[in-house]
Design brief:
Radius of gyration: 21 Å
Strand order of the largest sheet: 4-3-2-5-6-7-8
Number of helices: 7
Helix content: 25-40%
Structural class: alpha/beta
Distance between the termini: 36 Å
Number of strands: 9
Strand content: 15-25%
Largest sheet: 7 strands, parallel
Length: 258
Amino acid sequence: MPINIFHPDQILRIEKQTMVEQNISAEVLMERAGQVFTDWFIQKYQNKEIHIFCGQGNNGGDGLVIGRFLSLYFYKVNIWIVPWESNTSPEFIVNLNKLNTRQGIQIFQNFEFDSISKIPAEAIIIDAILGTGTNRSVVGVMAQIIDKINALPNLKVSVDIPSGLSASEITEGAAIKADWTLSFEFPKLAFLFPENQDYVKNWEVESIGLSKNAELLETPAFRVTDQKDLSKIYHPRTRFSYKHQNGHALIVAGSSNM
């Protein structure tokens, strides 16, 4: 079946309904998302130094969980806590405390911007600064940090969505130029905008077990038809077939002037 695309507020309702149906907390759902990302990541990249930039919302909380899990697989993990106004999610605080009890994870807070430039070029940067809740252009201090990260030659991997990117609209402010993005459960409409080709170079979707019942309660804004869907209806042509043997098409087209 085609893949559904939902607006951020719809995804939030699906997540909340999932927590009710499955009797789980937001913290447990965050752990699940972090594990899914980690499993995907270690299949692609091994024995690397990792630098995770975390905002103080739920996307940053995902990043903290990912850092904790990657340390269990003997990655060298560095966490950069990015300041973003005064809104800190409870789940972020819980997972930051969990990090503080572990050995081998270096945490940078209140860092100088120029120190970002000292990250080794061979290290991988994981972007978990801002999530799908971004609803305005990123400017000021946050934009400066994003520009510093973008200026680095390092491979950049975003959690759910490149930070600064609006999930459903054209982005005008600063945003992470991600080489890969792993989106949870659903792709974001922004992934399909030609204007975002520099921010979303490659993307994949993995399920975090959100409720199918909750998904059915929402009307998708759009749907994506992928190669798997097309393969079910595509029939290879024989070498000597001709057009009348392969069906007919009705095309209705035009404009006000033609």
